[in-house]
Write a structure and sequence with these properties.
- The chain contains nine helices and 13 strands.
- It is an alpha/beta fold and 311 residues long.
- The protein has a single domain, classed as UDP-N-acetylmuramoyl-L-alanine:D-glutamate ligase (3-Layer(aba) Sandwich), CATH 3.40.1190.
- The strands form two sheets. Strands 5-4-1-8-9-10-11-12-13 form a nine-stranded mixed sheet, with helices on both faces.
- The longest helix is centred in the C-terminal third of the chain and has 18 residues.
Length: 311
């Protein structure tokens, strides 16, 4: 399975609770791409950076990590986005963002061709903001018509600005095979964390897998109108930055092993969902142990061994 991750690439400036500062390449889909690459998968990042120092850090990180950069667009006229994150005592971050995008992104860019062995992952503000829409609409429709596996993470922390954004979010959910969001995301969007109500309000089909993460509480899976809970081990995080992205990466990393594709997703059973969620939890727990945004090579190696045994 070939993977494509679509979304923002930012330079994260992270201030820890003891006042130390760390600069790392970030952005939810960049983190997803990095974790998949570390895990040994072929992944291309579809994103946008400036031809500046922060952009060079991101580009160098992508190449060093093994992320494909064929569709990482570089713009000499605009600056790379910056995220300033301050961690509290619980390792949770509060953010300030600084962006300088043109009105339309990816003009003239030739996008990849998808097929049934492709996975397309997208999410966060790039899935809603105007500049990204022409490219996203093209990619979503291409992935859908090709029968690709589509994974969406809303990653929203505040109310949507207008009806247009709401319409785009519902479109994103309805076109995706797997939707994973936090309880905070869904409460902000639907004023509930009940997957039954969320699925109804979003207009989801029974064979779409809805996953709700709740921090240290159980992960909730909703599939074929059945709700299942999966416990999360106790952990005191150093940083929660990238934890949700790591969870997503864990799900996607085992999608191929579990033979999870659009045409046979109706065959999902609790045991397979449990394996996917378990790997997601392992990835997220590993990321929480440091201020980095990605899993360790050791975690990738151990799960690669498990993956080999299951193949």
């Amino acid at each position: 399975m070939d993977y494509y991750a679509f979304g923002e690439s930012l330079l994260d400036i992270i201030v820890s609770k003891n006042g130390q500062t760390q600069t790392v390449a970030g952005g939810s889909q960049l983190n997803v791409a990095a974790n998949l690459a570390i895990s040994g998968y072929k992944v291309q990042l579809i994103s946008y950076i400036g031809e500046d120092a922060p952009g060079k850090i991101i580009n160098d990180f992508a190449k060093k990590t093994g992320i494909g950069t064929n569709f990482l667009h570089k713009d000499a006229q605009h600056k790379t986005a910056i995220a300033f994150a301050v961690l509290n005592e619980e390792g949770q971050a509060s953010y300030s963002f600084y962006k300088d995008y043109p009105k339309t992104l990816f003009e003239g860019v030739v996008f990849p061709e998808f097929d049934a062995d492709t996975c397309f992952s997208f999410g966060s503000m790039a899935a809603l903001e105007n500049q990204w829409q022409p490219a996203l609409e093209h990619l979503l429709l291409s992935a859908k018509s090709a029968g690709s596996l589509i994974f969406y993470d809303p990653n929203i922390r505040s109310k949507l600005k207008d009806k247009t954004a709401e319409s785009r979010l519902l479109r994103n959910m309805q076109l995706s095979n797997i939707i994973r969001g936090s309880d905070e995301d869904f409460f902000t969007l639907f004023e509930t964390t009940d997957p039954v109500i969320i699925a109804e309000k979003a207009g989801l089909q029974a064979t779409q897998l809805l996953l709700i993460t709740q921090g240290a509480k159980d992960v909730i899976a909703y599939f074929k109108k059945k709700k299942t809970s999966f416990p999360v081990p106790s952990l005191k995080p150093v940083s929660t930055i990238g934890a949700g992205d790591a969870f997503n990466s864990g799900i996607l990393s085992f999608a191929e092993v579990m033979r999870l594709k659009t045409k046979n997703r109706h065959l999902l059973v609790d045991e397979i969902i449990g394996v996917l969620v378990g790997v997601g939890i392992s990835f997220a727990a590993n990321v929480c142990k440091s201020t980095g945004n990605t899993i360790s090579a050791e975690t990738a190696d151990s799960l690669r061994t498990i993956r080999g045994d299951l193949s």
